Amino acid sequence: MFTMMKGKNDNSKDFKVRIELRVNDAAYSLSVEPRRTLLDTLREDLHLTGTKKGCDMGECGACTVQLDDKPVYSCLLLAVECEGHDIQTIEGLTKGEKLDPIQEAFIEYDAHQCGFCTPGQIMAIRGLLKSNPDPTPEEIRVGLSGNICRCGAYHRILKAAAAAAQVYGEGDS
After folding, report:
1. Looking at the whole model, is its pTM more than 0.85?
2. What structural domains and CATH numbers belong to the chain?
3. What DSSP character marks residue 104?
């Protein structure tokens, strides 16, 4: 459970809470303002900048991470809400130099143009494949429906997701 710590004066904005987060299988102890989002905590406090800040309103999906293996918009969650949960970011997918099958598929199918949406797209696909390792093309489209690609690389993103689904379906993930 988090604890309140008083700041320099009595203004509520100076209060911070101590939280424990588990991100990419590592434990972190942080002092954050209670209103700080998970996105800002990841990027600014933990320096995990693979998670992108797009709209900051839960509409574009660029900030998608996994919370207990489910895709979530990190801009809509407070960091204090995430204590006691397993958080996975794009940085946590590689094992040494071995890429996740979704990352490999994105490279193989050239499913990234500017690359800004790519981490969120990959994390959304991972969440889908964790819950359904053999999705239909329609289930893949629905699983990605909350993630916007401003470059319009959807056709290649869908191909990469389908290819990654084959690998996940074989149990190699």
Report:
1. yes
2. 3-89 (3.10.20.30), 101-169 (1.10.150.120)
3. H
